[in-house]
Design the sequence.
């Protein structure tokens, strides 16, 4: 069955393969595990090939993580990717050893997997940090008009969410809340260029305000960095997944 991946995960896969190439170059220069004695070209081909195999193994875990409900920003994803990357690389090395020596002992296989995993967890962690940095939103490349409406003590804060309360809109920020007499639709327009999504008929959430997305019994709730929770209507769940939020 084909698993539809959010665009953000597709992009992160390309980024991860780029990091695998860089890792292969670095490893070919450092020459760990007695590979420094190999010719430079051989060492480069060896380590970059293994890094690409590990990168493919790592991103083979992404569809499984999506099914398991593991968040893209979770370190559980990093650990899972390091394991699948290690399996892919270890299987490749075992195949080479069997071709050369006809046999590989279980203990040697265990040691091999462990040493491969050490490198894999480092590369997966670097890829995760790079991906997180790429996803970190630019909350306001130019000042949002809405900021000028809230009280002065909050104007240097980050806007996390907007929620309608009767004829008012509550502006939730990193330093507190403020109530404005205006329609939610108008407030959302004035929040531009801050990136965000309308997740409910009475809620708009900024990308930078999302701490986590909780899923239970087919329902979604966004946990804001401020501690509040924003409901997600069923009709808006797909756009959250497509945007890589869930």
Sequence:
């Amino acid at each position: 069955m084909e698993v539809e991946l959010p665009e953000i995960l597709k992009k992160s896969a390309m980024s991860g393969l780029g990091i695998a190439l860089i890792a292969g170059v670095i490893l070919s220069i450092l020459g760990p595990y007695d590979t420094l004695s190999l010719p430079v070209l051989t060492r480069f081909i060896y380590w970059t090939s293994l890094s690409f195999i590990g990168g493919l193994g790592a991103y083979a875990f992404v569809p499984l993580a999506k099914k398991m409900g593991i968040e893209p920003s979770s370190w559980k994803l990093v650990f899972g990717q390091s394991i699948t990357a290690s399996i892919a690389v270890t299987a490749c090395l075992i195949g080479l050893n069997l071709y050369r020596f006809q046999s590989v002992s279980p203990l040697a296989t265990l040691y091999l997997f462990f040493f491969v995993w050490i490198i894999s967890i480092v590369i997966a962690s670097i890829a995760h940090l790079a991906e997180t940095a790429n996803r970190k939103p630019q909350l306001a490349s130019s000042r949002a008009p809405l900021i000028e409406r809230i009280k002065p003590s909050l104007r240097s804060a980050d806007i996390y969410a907007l929620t309608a309360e009767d004829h008012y809109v509550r502006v939730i920020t990193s330093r507190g809340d403020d109530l404005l007499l205006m329609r939610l639709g108008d407030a959302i327009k004035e929040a531009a260029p801050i990136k965000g999504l309308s997740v409910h008929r009475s809620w708009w959430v900024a990308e930078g305000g999302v701490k986590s997305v909780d899923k239970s019994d087919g329902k979604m709730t966004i946990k804001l960095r401020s501690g509040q929770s924003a409901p997600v209507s069923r009709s808006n769940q797909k756009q959250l997944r497509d945007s890589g939020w869930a």
In short: The radius of gyration is 23 Å. The chain is about 50% helix and 20% strand.
